Amino acid sequence: MIQKRNLFLLFFFTTILFSGFYLHPFHVSKSDIKYNESQKTIEIAIHIFIDDLEASIKKQSGEKLYLATPKEASKSNDWVSDYVQNNFKLKINGTSTILDFVGKDYSEDKLAIWCYFEAKNIQNIKEITLKNTILFDLYDDQKNIVHIIGPNNQKIHFLHQIDRPIESKKF
Fold it and tell me: CB 3.0-4.6 Å disulfide test: which of 20, 94, 116, 148 passes with 25?
């Protein structure tokens, strides 16, 4: 009886350990960029796993944010905004674009965060260049996927990785 119980416990904990129950086994962020032609703005939504974002911010600043918990740091918006703005650099027609932090939202399971930004007074987009180094300081296998809807609803996609942090496209 005890042997069956021990065998069950060994199987149970091995399954949990190797199933990725505690850690997500891939390192990816997703961003959506949309040009709003009527408002002359660029709307940006960035999806990042919370544990990775907190680890990167802590590595760079020593700050622990406790995102999506009752202990969330009062300056978490500032830290998240600064982190993204330092690692997500957008140029339109060769000119750096200022990104205004709009806010953040958490996924229902509290495992990920959506960060929202906006760039104003954007006209006549001929070329978009993006340097996306989100979480590159943590993972060599980090991938940052970007979906863009540009002028006239043209769709393009970027895949940023550690050996290719900058992507550019002409419209």
Answer: 20
Task: Work out the number of other CB atoms within 10 angstroms of the CB of residue 89.
Answer: 16
Whole-structure pTM value: 0.85
- From the CB of residue 122, how many other CB atoms can be counted at a distance below 10 Å? 20
110 near 136, Cβ under 8 Å?
no
* Residue 80 buriedness (CB in 10 A; 0-12 / 13-18 / 19+): buried
- Distance between CA atoms of residues 117 and 137, nearest Å: 22
Residues 6 or more apart in contact with residue 120 via CB below 8 angstroms: 40, 41, 100
Three-state SS for 38-85 is: CCCEEEEEEEEEHHHHHHHHHHHHCCCCCCCCCCCCCCHHHHHHHHHH
What local confidence, expressed as pLDDT, does residue 25 receive? Answer: 73
Q: Which residues contact 6 (CB under 8 A, 6 or more apart)?
A: none
pLDDT in tens, 14-52: 444 444 444 557 899 999 999 999 999 999 999 999 999
How many angstroms separate the CA atoms of 99 and 87, rounded?
12
Cβ atoms of 160 and 146 closer than 8 Å:
yes
